[in-house]
Amino acid sequence: MSRAEEAARRVELAALKDQAESREAQQLLDTFVVEARSRGIEPEPLRATLMDGHGVKTDKLGWYLRKNKSVAVGDDGAYYVLTVPGGLRERLRGVRLTPSPPPLEVGRGGRDGETGDLAEFLRKRLEAG
Fold it and tell me: Do the beta carbons of residue 62 and residue 74 sit within 8 Å?
């Protein structure tokens, strides 16, 4: 096997691992949504932050998972990263959120110190009510 083929195989294996992780994380999110609703924890309108720091409205309802409100679970069970690109138009009209593949570790590679297991973030959110 050539070096190029080995590299392509490593990329393929990493993608398969990421997909498996996202499927497992999605199960946690789906369970969270059911549990939040059964406890009467209502979703709230989600807001996003533009790269320039301005807050904007979004088209989704959900539950924030991080204190800085940069990550949320939508009422549809999707995982949303709430730091988005945009400018004046988005400040005036708001943004449409696109779901991201959910990770099992929230904030992986981030520098703000609020990282950890997705299951733990979900548990804390349920406990907070």
Answer: yes
